[in-house]
Amino acid sequence: MSGGRGELEGRVAVVTGAAGGMGGAITQAFLAAGCRVVATDLKPEPLPEAGGALSRLSHDASSESDWRIVVAEAVGRFGRIDILVNNAAYFEPASFVDTSAADMDAHYRVNQRGVLIGMQAVLPAMRSAGRGTIVNICSVAALSGSTGAFAYMSTKWAIRGMSRAAARELAPLGIRVNAIMPGLIDTAMMACNPPERNAGIIGAIPAGRAGRSEEVAEAALYLASDRSAYLTGSEIVVDGGLSA
What we know:
Blueprint: E1 12-15, H1 21-32, E2 36-41, E3 54-58, H2 64-78, E4 83-86, H3 101-129, E5 132-137, H4 150-170, E6 175-182, H5 195-204, H6 213-224, E7 235-238
Parallel strand pairs: 1-2, 1-4, 2-3, 4-5, 5-6, 6-7
Helix pairs in contact: 1-6, 2-3, 3-4
């Protein structure tokens, strides 16, 4: 799947949740491929330095007004938006019986509403260019049922459906929409799980380990590039065989 350096030369991407493990790795992979990146997060300080190719913004992915600022920054500074990676996520593990309406609302705001308004926010810029690619970071939680993360799983199933529906609607405009389904990835979110839960998941992974953020970033780079020009409405599973 690996491409060459410079394969995103001249492109402009917006990456949300960019201060986290996967978001940071995606940002760095895009920069290394020649892309200019508007990297957003609630706390953007830890993002890497990259001179004029990188713009950092504090951004609440569930806020329409914040999205307008992000789009204005990307178009005003770099002139266009070619790629959107919806990576920002909220995760608070809880079983079905322990999930409150407030828990559902908190997950919905970032994970589902954030993806919706993000795709809508970049649409005018992509439509005017006649092309674009959207990568929604979903989860293997949207491939089957499991216990312990009811609200999170519900919103990830929603992202999967939204990605497929948007792919059908936006294909005539030259805009591709795909999803990445990470399994257990060694990030701060993984640390939110009880250690025994992580140990149990790793024990069930045929590859025998948790994934690395860079492995998710490689999938995002592929979907953002012309190598995946015929892919839309597709899902790339990055889980070491867990869902096989």
